[in-house]
């Protein structure tokens, strides 16, 4: 940093000092705490939904994850459609983007943004721009894991 300041003209150095003087200090600890609490609350809601499926629909602990994830994604899409999830994202930052609900928000936000271009080219063409890589990686990873498991079963290891 010192070598960069030596190469600056005096006018650039004065501007740099002025910019640092007026720069808004970010409350990093406060933002981390908000993200942690909101992300934790989303996980608590997910756990409550999981228990709901366990006790009222007779799912087992091995297969309760799929309907829980689907419900959480659906809820985040619904909240995004009503404009509430964006407010949550503004407040919590990564606390709302990291859980699986962030995936639902990313998909539906792109669909809402491009709906004026039509359902096929607008919504269909742009809905998975952001989330497409997540879907691709998930499908490819599932394929590789299934292939390895199948080979291990054929070879008698499992």
Overview of this protein structure:
It contains nine helices and no strands. It is mostly helical. It folds into two domains: 29-127, no CATH class; 132-158. Helix 3 (28-56) crosses helix 4 (65-81), helix 4 (65-81) packs parallel to helix 7 (101-113) and helix 7 (101-113) runs antiparallel to helix 8. The longest helix is centred in the N-terminal third of the chain and has 29 residues, at 28-56. The termini are far apart.
Key phrases:
0% strand, 158 residues, mainly alpha, extended
SSE topology:
Elements: H1 2-7, H2 10-22, H3 28-56, H4 65-81, H5 84-92, H6 94-97, H7 101-113, H8 119-126, H9 132-154
Helix pairs in contact: 3-4, 4-7, 7-8
Order of helices and strands: HHHHHHHHH
Task: Count the domains.
Answer: 2
Helix content: over 70%
* Averaged pLDDT: 88
Q: In terms of per-residue confidence, which ranges show pLDDT below 50 for 5 or more consecutive residues?
A: none
Strand tally is 0
By DSSP (H or I, 4+ residues per run), the number of helices equals 9
Describe the structure concisely.
By secondary structure, the protein is mainly α. The chain contains nine helices and no strands. It is extended.
């Amino acid at each position: 940093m010192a070598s960069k300041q030596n190469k600056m003209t005096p006018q650039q150095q004065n501007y740099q000092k002025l910019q640092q003087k007026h720069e808004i200090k970010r409350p990093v600890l406060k933002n981390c705490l908000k993200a942690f609490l909101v992300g934790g609350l989303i996980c608590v809601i997910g756990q409550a939904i999981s228990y709901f499926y366990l006790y009222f629909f007779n799912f087992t602990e091995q297969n309760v994850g799929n309907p829980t994830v689907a419900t959480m994604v659906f809820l985040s899409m619904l909240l995004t459609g009503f404009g509430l999830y964006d407010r949550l994202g503004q407040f919590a930052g990564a606390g709302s983007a990291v859980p699986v609900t962030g995936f639902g928000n990313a998909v539906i936000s792109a669909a809402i943004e491009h709906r004026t271009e039509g359902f096929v080219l607008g919504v269909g063409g742009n809905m998975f721009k952001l989330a497409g890589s997540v879907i691709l990686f998930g499908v490819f990873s599932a394929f590789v894991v299934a292939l390895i498991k199948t080979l291990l079963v054929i070879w008698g290891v499992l």
